[in-house]
Amino acid sequence: MPVRQLDGRPVWQRRTTRRQWAIWAGWFAGVVLFVWCWELMTSRTIWAFVWDAPRQAADIGSRMLPPRWSYIDKLLWPLWDTLNIATLGTLLGIIIAVPVAFLAARNTTPSALFLRPVALFIIVASRSINSLIWALLLVSMIGPGLLAGIIAIGLRSIGFVGKLLYEAIEEIDESQVEAVRATGASGAQVLDYGIVPQILPAFAGISVFRWDINIRESTILGLVGAGGIGLQLQASLNTLAWPQVTMILLLVLGTVLVSEWVSAKVRHAVI
Amino acid sequence: MSTAAAGRRWRRPPVLIKNRRTRWLVYGGLVIYLALAISTVEVNWLRVYEGLDRGWRFVQGFLAPDFVSRWKDISQGLAESLSMTVTSTVVGVLLAVPVGIGAARNVAPMPIYLFCRAIIALSRTFQEVIIAIFFVAMFGFGPFAGFLTLAFGTIGFMAKLLAEDIEDIDEAQAEAVRATGASFPQLINYGIQPQVMPRLIGLSLYRLDINFRESAVIGIVGAGGIGATLNTAIDRYEYDSAGAILLLIILIVMAAEYSSSHVRGWVQ
Fold first, then answer.
1. What domains can be seen in chain B, in order of their start residue?
2. B138:A57 CB<8 A
3. Per-residue pLDDT tens digits for B137-153
4. Dist CA A233 CA A149 (whole Å)
């Protein structure tokens, strides 16, 4: 315990002098970093626009209200497309993620040296890149439309589902696997009877959770041309039709709330 | 096993859904939905077939990335993204702390609780990209709009998790501090802060990571950063530059995840 002599009497201190200085230097470096980043970020900011922002906000706000309720007729079909992008994309992601997760889990991978790093890289690459960027790439490759959106959502879901699933596989109770193996079960049977029943609830929870996130993400994929309600949003923004934007946002809000409710119900039921 | 059971065969119990009627209903509904969904997806297969060539060029670009020819744009975009990430996380976390304390039912009075919960709900409802569209419309193009978007998103995320953390603390410690006659700031500082600090630091690092990933996206709608550079590269079909940018994003995210897991282990 650091004790300092003060007027000949020992005084207790929480930290040693050196530690105190180190902490102070750490905070100082943090503040310097923040100020430097702030300077870098604002170096090209046009402050006149920033000071003008409250007026702009009031202007946009006044244009957005009231929402154009009749526009909903044109939104139902894109909404159906959006739901399809999210659901089919999630399915695609799951189909690819399951084998990747088994390759990435330390206790089920056939080769820890070669296949596991590859599987982990697939997971990291898919997780680092947002579905909107995948959509941007895919639209430039295979053209605008629902398919680009579905594949984009699928590619982004691989990493999420794969990561959570392989962590679940690594956390299973090995004794059950051992018991199944002791009956003379083949590798596939061990997987089917020893491992799958243990991870199935987690798998269902993860899938529904990702589906819920994908509903949110699929609403904006249209901004880059990948179909769904985002296309309408983009069109309305381009023509400055703010009442339509409000209507779309309200619909998106409703959809997200419903999907969140469904996801919470299902996860509550399986876990 | 008894002799009566010896003649029967073991049947595997149904997975997930126990009730037979519900099981068939759920599965049947899923099949019908899938048939409907797939039949309404219109795909121009000719266009997709033509796109395979470009897809292959992207894979090649990804394997042989070109960092050099657009390095000036890439480094500028990365600098904007990283500075945006740092400033927005710091400002967002600083603002999220009071909101989080206000949204914890065990320390905040009812009106403040409702007000802070409303802020959190507002911030968490919409995607960052949609918020970015509005901030770009208000504050003009560039990283400042991105900074505001990310800070706004950080407030909702951090405040919600912080509030849940504060609600889960060990009340005995807070009670003990309260019993000494401590004021409210003293209660927060001595009774609550030591209990939630390690997780707060861990979450801040996690949010730093998320903010960097998001900063790559909101550039697409004009909020500055590496996303704008990426968008330009893809629009010009320069897949080798796009591959380089994506690789840089992946590398930075990996480095951030690796170092944050170290720092978290060190803090806790």
1. 70-267 (1.10.3720.10)
2. yes
3. 888 888 888 899 999 99
4. 15
